[in-house]
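Subgroup meeting minutes
Present: P.N., E.W., G.H.
Scribe: E.W.

1. P.N. recapped why we're keeping a running log of single-chain structure predictions: easier to compare across weeks, and new members can see raw inputs and outputs side by side.
2. G.H. added today's entry (333 aa).
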Amino acid sequence: MKRLDYYWYARSPWLLLLTPFSLLFRLVAATRRLAYRSGLLRSRRVGVPVIVVGNITVGGTGKTPLVAWLAGYLRDRGYRPGIVARGYGGNASQWPQQVRPDSNPATVGDEAVMLAGRTQCPMAVGPDRYAAACALVQHSDCSIIISDDGLQHYALARDIEIAVIDGIRRFGTGFMLPAGPLREPVSRLDSVDLIVVNGLGAGREHRMHMRTGDAFRLVDGARRPLADFKSESVHAVAGIGNPQRFFRALSQDIRAVEQHEFPDHHHYRPEDIAFGDDRPVLMTEKDAVKCRYFAGDNVWYVPAEVELSDEFRKRLDELLELRAPTVADAVHL
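Output recorded in log:
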């Protein structure tokens, strides 16, 4: 059975039956945003600048690799970044939770463990982003916070908003949930500071190019250029928001790719990646954190690297400078 998001981007006519519910969702979202803008509900600051990286659609757009890139970019400029996230898929009984590279993804979420390992930044997760950010400030020396997702979590005041768009799928039907993939109307993009498109952009959109890096073996971290798999037949495993993006990227370098698609945030079992042969199994970095304890010698993960234009970097620097009273103090704490 095809997932609902397939029909969003195929623009299936039967989705019109869901438009009354989409109109209701739009009304609730607009009322909630108005409540924060009018002060009826309060956005609270945590004492350091906050950058939110999010999207207005459901599903993968590439924002998490962008968060990893942004953490490195800020660190290179003298900041001490910390990261907060929802911890989606985690089953912790108490929130917020500190995240380390060796944390259990079943407790704090797979993307969180991946980000903690990739960035080596202090990180906290929880449904309440404000509480997670407060915990991070209290228990670490971070001077700036990046929120992975959270564009719609207005309780956490932010200094810079970055929205990420899938350059191929864009906005699907153009409707809000459940008749389309939108969490907020497209007009919400008019109020963000930076729009990043994973693919080709236009106008004020900044293009983000994603590429696959070398492959790393799960059992021992051995590194192997992806080009080494070119003439082989491999299994490709992906349980992410947009698995086809990963499969397409591998197919550019590898002759034969057998695709194995799983739901986003899938809880893997050993049999999920055992295919009865010794062919290489390539998976995403997010999937790898859930398979590292039972992976065999033939299982590798392929991290996604992002490249951003000089124009994006320049505009980001301008925005940081524009928030100078807060940002400058944070850098020199």
